[in-house]
Structures are given as structure tokens and as C-alpha cells.
Amino acid sequence: MSRMTTGEVLAPAQSHESATVRAGWRHSIEQRALLLLVAADALSVVIAYATAFLVRIWVPLPLTAHLLPPQVFDGPHSALGVALVTQFPLLYFFGLYDMRLLRHELSLLMAPLLALVTQLLAIAGWYFFRGEETGFPRSVLVIFTLTNLGLVVASRFAIRRVLREGRRVVRVALVGRAKEVAELSQVLGEASSMGHAIDVVGGIRIEGFGRTGEPIPGSDLIWLGGTHDLARIAEEGGVDQVILVPAESGREGLLDRVLRATDVALPPRVAVVPSVHELLIGRLASLSIDDVPLIEVARDPRQDLAFAIKTALDYVLATLLLLFAAPVCAIAALAIRLTSPGPIFYRQRRVGQGGREFMMYKLRTMRHDAENETGPVLAHHGDQRVTAAGRFLRATRIDEIPQLLNVLNGTMSLIGPRPERPEFVEDLVRDIPGYAERWLVKPGLSGLAQVRGEYDTTAAYKLKYDLAYIHNYSLFLDVRIMLETVKALLTRQGI
């Protein structure tokens, strides 16, 4: 691993262009692979289904009395529809659209097996409950399942091989103190000599340790800059991966600074060398380089297939809920008009996905001049600005119904972190490490913090719920939060 100067790493236009190409390739290749897997899985069902019938019609098999007559291929083929309908949700819920699964060969074999055995039972149950016990040959169903399993596994091994062969040299920058950077660079240098495509381009110093361009003691690297230079380094595209190797103290604040600094159009991946404490409590590393365990920081969870499905469901469910709630909203509007002067609807600026402001709609629950004298103030229990009708609307969450319009215009989701007012955001971002991570996804009408916390739960603890939701997202989690939201409405618990 040769020593590089800052100019060699970052300055030439050709280097910048190639780094941008690498970054774009890295961010698009997994999405393309995901689309290929979806298409391959649909094709697998059709091929496996046709193969199963052709084998039973033309190939004598053990344990079968005779070949099937060719007329059986004429149908009906309702099982094909059941197979197509169940293929994608089952593969998804068993994790087979998670690119990380491609790293583990055992999981690549066991997860498809469990998913497709479940599919077999679903098809068998379809015929049983319809009373068509002899309408579909059981031997064909078994052959279909085995063929489908082989094709699903083969497509994932093929994708994994393409991803590995297309892997490019990963340009890594290490963030930490000189001793920590030197030790890890030596380990990564040995890993590179053993075939890992790694190029450690330099170190990112923690303020107060070394100057830009100076050699890093104990290694042949230089300091590329401090953490305040990360935005420039990330923009110039000279780094594919940033690895934090700081001591355990101050890690949370440092990680927050790194994430903010690298929040650019094509950001480098960010990973952390886990502390002894994190390993002792059982926090699993999501990746490793040679014998170095790493915890990768999920930068864009929206790349998951579930978020694409979530968006479609938002529009469908918001439309249905808005139609269903229209009469309730009309009665509430009448109550507002009769009990207090002012407009029925209340518009308020909030901060949404990507830190962009948008206009959020609610039914008015406070006096129309509530903030004329005080300016923006957070609502609280017993707030005297709330009207008589407003107390009921807030307690039942009826005042939130107009936010379904925000879901339909794409600024909000049904489930997600609650959006905050821009007047308070600057202080929250400054005081709470990681607060800006909430903006990775659309804000929601309800969220994990709303159903697990209480009204006066601090912003810092709400953030923990929000980040847990964002980085552990699944459609099943959304369903759970929706059900718990209904429970919170009925029991008047939660935020």
C-alpha cells in the first residue's frame, strides 16, 4: 500500500470523475440486482410450473403409478396464480430481497427452502379448502417446489457471483487518532495483500491531532484532513468507505458529525469498528474485512424493496381512510366553527424528508391567535391555548385527519417519525447527536415513538425510537405500529 498525497487522492479531474463513477456504480448496482431478482423469481414460477407438468407427462418417475395424460396440461391452472401471488411476499418476509443475505451461503439455502415449503403448503391448502383434492396432481406440486427452489437459489448465487466479479477497489479513509488509524491500516494492508480489494487512501484526524498532509506516525499514510474537511472530501468523491476507529468515549458525537459531513449526493459508506462493550452485549457486526468486525451505518434504508411497497400502500390506504373519515372530519369542522372564531383548518410548516420544509394540514385545536404574543411554543398537557372542541379533537386524534392529504401529496407517510417545526429543529440538531437521521424517510402520521412513548417523552428518547424504526424497517413493523396506534387511540395512551 503506497503512500499518497492529498493532491494525488483528490485533486485531478480524472480521479474525481472515476471516483464519481465508482460511487454511482456502487449505489445503483444493488438496486439493479434487486430488480433482476424480482424478475428472475417471477420467471422461476412459470418455468418451474411448466417443467413440473412436462416431467410428469413425459418422464417416468419412481413411486408414480403412470405418466399423466397430456390433457392435464390444459388446466385449469389456479395453482399458478397462487404461486405467483405468494412467491414475492414469502421471499421478502424470509429476507431473500436483502442483499446482505448473499454473503451467507447457509442462509442462501435455508431461507428459500423455508419460504417455498410454506408456498407448497399454501397451494395445497388452496385446493383442500376448495374441495379440489384430485384437481391438481400432488407429484406435480412437489416437482414444482423443488424446481422453483433450485431456480431461486441459482439466481441468487448468480447475482452474488456477478457482484463479486464486478467488485472494484474500495478506497477507504480511517477516522481516529494516529495510533488507532495506524493499527487498523496495517490490518487492512494485510487484508489487501490477501486479495481483498482495499486501498486505504489516508486518515481523517480528530481535531487537535496532526495537520492536513502530514504523515501519520506508525504508517505510510497521511492525514487527508479533519472531520470538518469530510464534506469536501466526500463531495470530491475520493473515498468510497469511511471507517471510524475512535476510542469508546465520544463515539456518538463523532459519528453524528461524520454522517452530517458526508450527506452528499453520492455519499461514501460509513462503518464503525465496534467497541468491546458493543460486542459483549451481543451487537452483531454486519460486515467484516479480513478479521476486523465492522458495524455498517445504514445511510439509505429506502433502497429496501419494502419502502417501494410502503409508498404504494400509503397512497391506497390514505385514499380509503380519507373517504371513510370524511363524515367525521365534517362534524369536527362544524364543532370548530361553532366553538371558536377563526379558520377550520390549520396550516403549519414542518421539516420533512431530506430536511425540506413542507406545509402540514390539521384541524385547528387552538385559538387562532395562540402564538401572536409568545411566538412558536411546544404544546404540552393542560395547554391553555387549546379550545374546548380542540381538547376532544386532540384526545381522539381527529385533528390529524387532514394529514392524509399530506400523504397523498407525497410529503408524509402513514407511519414514520413525526415532523417537527423548523423553529425548533436547529436547536434539536445541535443538541441531540443523530437527530438529522430522522430525515432519511418521510415523516408519518404515527410512529414507533408515538405508540411506545408518552406525550412528554423527551426528544432524545423519541429519536431512539425513530432510528430503531428507520434502520429496522419492515412492512410487518408498519402493520404492528398501525395496530398499536388504534390501541393508543382507544386507550388514550401514547403520544
Written description of the protein model:
With about 500 residues, the protein is an alpha/beta fold. The protein folds into three domains: about 25-165, no CATH class; about 170-300, NAD(P)-binding Rossmann-like Domain (Rossmann fold); about 305-490, no CATH class. About 50% of the residues lie in helices and about 10% in strands. It has 16 helices and eleven strands. It has helices at about 5-10, 15-60, 80-95, 105-130, 140-165, 180-195, 230-235, 250-260, 275-280, 305-340, 390-395, 405-410, 420-430, 450, 460-470, 475-490, and strands at about 170-175, 200-205, 225, 240-245, 270, 285-290, 290-295, 345-350, 355-365, 415, 445. It has a seven-stranded mixed beta sheet, with helices on both faces. A hairpin with a 2-residue loop joins β6 (about 285-290) and β7 (about 290-295). α2 (about 15-60) packs antiparallel against α3 (about 80-95) and α3 packs antiparallel against α4 (about 105-130). The chain starts with 5 loop residues before the first helix and ends with a helix. The relative contact order is 0.08. Mean pLDDT is about 75; it is low at about 1-25 and about 280-285.
